[in-house]
Amino acid sequence: MGAVIARVEPLTTTRRLSGPFDYAPGDASLKVGSVVRVPFGHQALDGVVVGFAEHSEVAPERLQEPTSVRVEAIPPDLVELALWMAEEYCSTRARALSLVLPPPGRPRTRLWAQRTDRPLDGERLTARQRAALERLPGPAGDDRAVLRALEARGLVEIAPRAARRAPLTRPQEDREVALTDDQRAALRALDGDGTARLLHGVTGSGKTEIYLRAAADALARDRGAIVLVPEIALTPQTVARFQARFGDTVAVLHSALSEGERSDEWRRLAAGEARIAIGPRSAVFAPVRDLGLVVVDEEHDASYKHEGDPRYDARLVAAERARRAGALLVAGSATPRPETWHALPRLTLGRRVDGRRLPPVHVLDMRGARHPLHPATRAALAASHKSIVLLNRRGWSNFLTCRSCGKVWECPQCDVALVLHRGEGVVTCHHCGHRERVPERCDTCGSLSVARYGAGTERIEHELREALDVPIMRLDADTAGAKDAVGALLARFAAAPRGLLLGTQMVAKGHDFPDVTLGVVLDADATLRFPDFRAEERTFALVAQLAGRAGRGPRGGRVLVQTLAPEAPAIAAASRHDAEGFVRGELARRKALGYPPFADLIRVVCSADEVAPARAAAGAVAERADAPGARILGPAPLFRLRGRERFQIVVKASERRPAIAAVRAAVDAAARDRAHRAVSFSVDVDPQ
Ligand code: ADP
Ligand code: ZN
Ligand code: ZN
């Protein structure tokens, strides 16, 4: 490459150290995306080559060379994507690059033996030698000594070969289906001009079949595909169907893989051996070559937003990656987000493939009720063989208070009430995980009378066990502990002739249990009570998604929704299965209030051990974050979390780019100011 300078971005976590820095390429064949170790001052750092330059400010004799280069490099398109992400999410290049690094782990090889061309005629062979020859080609195993002897005679070749560590999967048979008219029309539209589309289809309308066909089209054009799903454990069917249709062309990427499995899947994609990557959020960074299709399944799912820095939204990153690659983007859901509805032209699958109607939904008014289960719910559960009950709150009761003095048991680290988990005999904080023994008496007034308010999944499980004679399976973060627990529990429920699946929002995800005839939502408005502009959207999606789980088989089904807010638009629309009506109403409301998609929100949270510095830092950011067309709300206090006092400002912007730039400048300035050294800053563009 001649006298070229390699520009290396060091992978450090501090915001202060920002490259790129110049290095001499040495004799290494560096390229954009090479992962290198470089001397840096008195230490050595890992870094990524982000570009090359003709000249450097650094004198030639002072330019240093990388001390080592990793075998696997980041594909250049992912380097570009990461640099874009760092800007878009007000993060650092180092943090964004670390999301696209090749996973650690080396390929595993094993010795592979095969026959040579040399004929066996006239060779004298023992029985063991004959047996060994007969089973070839194959790995050299217990009979290695025998094979080596044959190798010496030129009859066998033995060489190392990459051994794939393949993720465990639940194989399934592929079904060939004739497309419905709706599906055919949707595919024709996708085949058209390559514009991104929203695929809006009720559960069971055949969306997955569209993804499969679109992926086959991409492969036929010699291009690859990425398929994003919310959580593998909760959507094993989607993965299984891709594997059934495309076999080893599919690479699965998710957090439960071993290091070896992950690095093998990564390498298979990077080498073009596997052409389809399927996985949750982070699979948007899969090193798929010649990307032709990106699918975001269940695009409404909140798990697409990453809660670490950079706080990226995989849906937006997917759209950007597809745009850069000239790939087709398909975002599918039965309950699309208002943002997606607004942004993308829409394809509709209006009916279930099997022609069945969606189940009728009855709303049960719980105002004035004394018991968490409505009599109608009880009766329906007693009569149903298989049902799903959703209550989006775990634990026994929401909070404990002293009946004499009114004390509420709170977390010592966070300003929130502790939740009783009776089975474990503890009260815990659902924000920081703090746990303590269940109090027997009030430590303020000594009273022995402690009241428990509200009901979570643990208590409802207890109630249901008393009232019903069916096996009850609870699925929530408390029971989902072990690695395969979720999959095993769902498989058990699927196989059981009778049963009740009770749990948090985990029970409303993409499962397909044809024999479930009853769906129940308890306290459906719980999510509406959050002070958040997405409360409506979340409530609608939760209720409508659960409603889509019932009545998928010949016996039909129905859905009961218990609520204190029967007239709330989100609940009323969900009970009519009216996604379009809901989204239109919601878009009108957001427009009136200036919320996304009609404005961009950027949230900055300043936290510190004490109130004063957190407030001062938020004030400093608010003063400087001004941009044309931006409104700044706050600083406003947030509840204390993990012992940290917190203040936030929210920027509501009509122009995204200048607002992001202004917030970045304001946060960088405040973070550099020694007056705020006790403060941590967190920036969230498009907060959930
Ligand atoms: P969605 O993803 O919208 O929930 P699926 O693609 O999973 O819907 O389809 C639901 C069921 O219908 C699946 O069992 C699928 O195999 C089947 N299916 C899909 N398309 C057809 C079709 N055209 N004809 C018959 N069955 C179909
Ligand atoms: Zn008391
Ligand atoms: Zn806490």
Q: What does this protein look like?
A:
There is one protein chain. The protein has 688 residues and is α/β, with parallel strands linked by helices. The mean pLDDT is 90. It has 18 helices and 30 strands. 45% of the residues are buried. The strands form 7 sheets. A 7-stranded parallel sheet has the order 11-12-10-13-14-9-15, with helices on both faces. A 6-stranded parallel sheet has the order 16-26-25-17-24-23, sandwiched between helices. The structure holds adenosine-5'-diphosphate (ADP) and zinc ion (2 copies). One zinc ion (ZN) binds next to loops.
Oligomer: single chain
Query: Strand content of the residues, in percent?
Result: 15-25%
- Roughly what percent helix? 25-40%
Structural class: alpha/beta
Widest sheet: strand ordering: 11-12-10-13-14-9-15
Note the main sheet.
Answer: 7 strands, parallel
Shape: globular
**Could you tell me the radius of gyration in angstroms?**
29 Å
Bound molecules: adenosine-5'-diphosphate, zinc ion
Low-confidence stretches: none
Count the strands?
A: 30
